[in-house]
Design goal:
With 439 residues, the protein is α/β, with parallel strands linked by helices. Helix content is 38%, strand content 17%. The chain is built from 14 helices and 16 strands.
Amino acid sequence: MRVTTSSAAVRHLLAIVLALLLAGCGGSIGGGAGGGDGDGDGDGGGEDTASDEPLKVGVITGLTGAYVSLGEEQRNGAELAVKLLDGKAGDRPIEVIVRDDQLKPEAALREAQSLVQEEKVDFLTGCVSAATTLAVNQVAKEAGVPYIGTCQTEQLNRPPHFSPDITYHLAPATSLNVTAASPWICENLGSKLFLLMPDYAYGHEQNAAYRAAAGDAGCEIVGTAWFPLGTTDFNPYIPRVENSGADVVVFGGAGRDQVNFLRQANQFGLRDNLEIFLNIEDLTFDEELGFRLVEGTHAMAHFYWTIEDQGVQDYVEAYEQEHGRPPGGYSVFLYNALNLIAEQVAQGNDTPEEFREAMEGLEFSYAQGPEVMRECDHQALAPVYILEGLGADEAEERGGSADHGFREIIETIPANEEYAPTCEEVQEEFAPATPKPSS
């Protein structure tokens, strides 16, 4: 199935699939431990739940498809959080139920509906796709079950998707990272950008963000091209990039798309004349690419395993003991989500109303450094990191490990609300910029 980039089309698809699910399940969606009446007013939690009744958290992520490495990282992060919490949130045992959304909105709807109706989960979290997170959030709103999104998207925080009683966002809004990083790109890599973007929601969000940020940052967008999710052959795009007059190609894909692009960019000499900037970085991608292809590229990230922060390093050490390697960035979102949920439940904030009151404006620090949950749209504000790709001969000294030191943090952009959409802007529905062909 091809995921549409139109917000109205996404809503239409979700409405149809949700109606079919409801029709097959008696016309109602179950709530959390205390049940839910489906009116989305936040009474799906367990206000009278006994202290020894399990706290059930449903995790929905992509365990198959182009972003499988990110989904596996998320599962690892959730499982490690539960282990380090000794399996409890206060006096309540924690039960985490992990489901695969296959990167398809209809699968995400189906799994979310199953979790809230059949498993009676108290919270939902997870996602590696901007399209599937909206599907999970829609079911969460219907069920009155709080949902903590863990993938980058511009739409979760805005109408018609955002619900102040239900919706939270730990991953950055797409424009937050782009706005923070654009001045550094324009000053250090080049002023003429070519955007090579995946043709689905996240890619169109990146395109809109760069077009909004480029002028103020001192850059010009000289071309844009769109590739389908799961592209294996990037050869048709390389001449378009080379002939655009760009100094920098900004690549917006992840997972296997990123691996395939960098291999072919190296094979056909694209890297000889242009800088390559990756909008999303993860250690799992770098491991597959290897030092030769990572070297000399630049990327931005919300996490890197060498961050000098005690909470980060405690997490890195525990993850390495469990998996024999440092964590990637997407594992952190689930680790943080489980810790946030467990901490608030332990403090008695286990209903949606109490959880919301505790979360708004909350300052917290787990495995990503200091963060704050913005009150107006429940967006977590966190630092942005600029990373430089290293060769094998530099990995141990500059990257912290001969085996895993693929990148060095060369710039830390502190968390700043100025990089995020304003509280006024998030009151409006997101409208992607009109796609333009490369010049």
